[in-house]
Amino acid sequence: MSQQSWSAVPPHGPDGNGGWWAPLRAWDTELQRSGRVVIPAASRLRYIAIGLAAFSLVLCLGATIGFALAFGLIALLFVAPPFLICAGLSAVVLVQQIGHLRRHLVVTVHGIEVTGLATVPWQNVTGAKVVMNAVQVTVVWGRGSRVLQVGPLQAPAGQVVAWLEAVQHRMLGR
């Protein structure tokens, strides 16, 4: 990659000091310097969700075993099924949250990578948007398109989307 300056964002924001654009310029500088920027997934709320799902799983399984020991076979037939359904749903949430925990957005000069989902060149990225404070990237996939659910990141989703659009515009020379 050449060392020429090619900033994808304006030098000054609406306030004249950078303001809203400051994090974008920092990402731009890092992309120019190393050819790669990693925007990590938000993790604090994920850890809380993982803890709650694990607690719910243990509670439901504990109740199932407790009722079975206290009341015998009749409890297994009538009381256990709702608790087992609860445990199953808790396990699904637990696995899902653990999977999303490591879903980072990696932006390179060649394209984007959503850790654990896909690596996509810039020409196949058709758009990015914010949905419920989470980033979604639409890409060309086979004969159709696919939405990559990036999820909440440790950066404001609106800034990430604006920067992705600016970098894509710059990389493709549009």
TrEMBL record:
TM stretches of this protein: 45-67, 73-95
The entry's keywords: Membrane, Transmembrane, Transmembrane helix
Descriptive protein name: DUF304 domain-containing protein
Lineage, opening ranks: Bacteria, Bacillati, Actinomycetota, Actinomycetes, Propionibacteriales
